[in-house]
Amino acid sequence: MMHRIFLRTLHWARQRLDLVAYLTAENIVLRQQLLVLKRGQKRPQIRKSDRLFWVATSRVWSSWRDALVIVKPDTVVRWHRKGFKLYWRRKCKGEKRGRPLLDPAVKALVFKMADANPTWGAPKIHGELLMLGIDISERSVSGLLSRRNPKPPSQTWKTFIKNHLTEMVAVDFIVVPTIRFRLLFVFVVLSHVRRQVIHFNVTEHPTAEWTAQQIIEAFPWDTAPKYLLRDRDSIYGDWFRRRVKSMGIEEVLTAYRSPWRNAYVERLNGSIRRECTDHVIVFGENHLRRILREYFEYYHEDRTHLGLDKETPMGRPVSNRAFPSAKLVELPRVGGLHHRYEWSEAA
């Protein structure tokens, strides 16, 4: 009897060991296949059911990390946290929690006020919003401004120029080739008030002394402006800077390679090229001076300017048609490159 029980026990243990060995071998084979699959496809497509399986398994089996092959354990933990957030979000759905969200239109208005008024802070903007009937706290405005503009506000170049139009002039050089392939340099001094060219001159060899002399000729006696806007050209040397400083003029230098910061005189240079020098062949300095003198007369007295609301710098009276029989007269300017049109006074 004892011998039979021992044999049955031995047979059961052998079956048990065979089963363990079988499961171990099967596990090794499956893992090898998973490794091959992972090498062939680096990012397998995992469904929601797969995520739920591993999340549930991680809660009931302590050694779940040892069996992971296709994902990392941290990924499963992230899935669990995400599911926890979704669970409580759905459970709390419909309940209003925390502060109410700011209206995007109010945010845009705060940023617009901050950009248009660089010296305003949160208190002024908040007060302006209250005057518009917008209910918002000053702390909310301060938080928006701190994320939008962490640096101290500064006025723009456009605002600076606009506030100093009456006391500012701009200077620049324009290069014109001649028939003999020489280069002539035209120095222009532009007033910002009415876009008037106060002074110009032509030379083949510009120097700091010559440029300083042009400033003296442009502003005799006590007519010097307060500010002079220019670029960082090396032609404005120590001689030029000392002469300008002795006249009580403060130089305002634009940034390196930033012509848009001296926009008025740059626009003038472009107009000179497009409307005059690109259409003529220059023989020499005197020829160029004569051409530019005629062009600046047209520029001041006849040419309308967009920046002056279609007015002329010197003021041009409107030529009304006094009689039905009046004829339109075409007056040539700059050798016929441009024309001025008026109604004839004769009936």
Characterise this structure:
This protein folds into five domains: 1-42; 47-94, no CATH class; 104-154; 160-308, Ribonuclease H-like superfamily/Ribonuclease H (Nucleotidyltransferase, domain 5); 317-347, no CATH class. It contains eleven helices and seven strands. The chain has helices at residues 2-40, 48-60, 73-91, 104-116, 122-131, 138-148, 157-163, 208-218, 238-246, 263-275, 285-301, and strands spanning 168-177, 183-191, 196-203, 227-230, 250-253, 328-333, 338-343. The mean pLDDT is 81.
List the topology elements.
Elements lengths: L1 H39 L7 H13 L12 H19 L12 H13 L5 H10 L6 H11 L8 H7 L4 E10 L5 E9 L4 E8 L4 H11 L8 E4 L7 H9 L3 E4 L9 H13 L9 H17 L26 E6 L4 E6 L4
Parallel strand pairs: 1-4, 4-5
Antiparallel strand pairs: 1-2, 2-3, 6-7
Helix pairs in contact: 2-3, 4-6, 5-6, 8-9
Instruction: Count up the domains.
Output: 5
CATH topology value of the largest domain: Nucleotidyltransferase, domain 5
User: What is the gyration radius calculated from CA atoms?
Assistant: 41 Å
Please give the CATH architecture of the largest domain.
2-Layer Sandwich
Proportion of residues in β-strands: 5-15%
Number of helices: 11
Overall number of strands:
7
Taking the alpha carbons of the first and last residues, their distance comes to 149 Å
What string gives the helices and strands in order?
Answer: HHHHHHHEEEHEHEHHEE
- The CATH superfamily of the largest domain is known as Ribonuclease H-like superfamily/Ribonuclease H
The helicity comes to 40-55%
Short recap of the structure:
With about 350 residues, the protein is α/β, with parallel strands linked by helices. About 45% of the residues lie in helices and about 15% in strands. The radius of gyration is 41 Å and the shape is elongated.
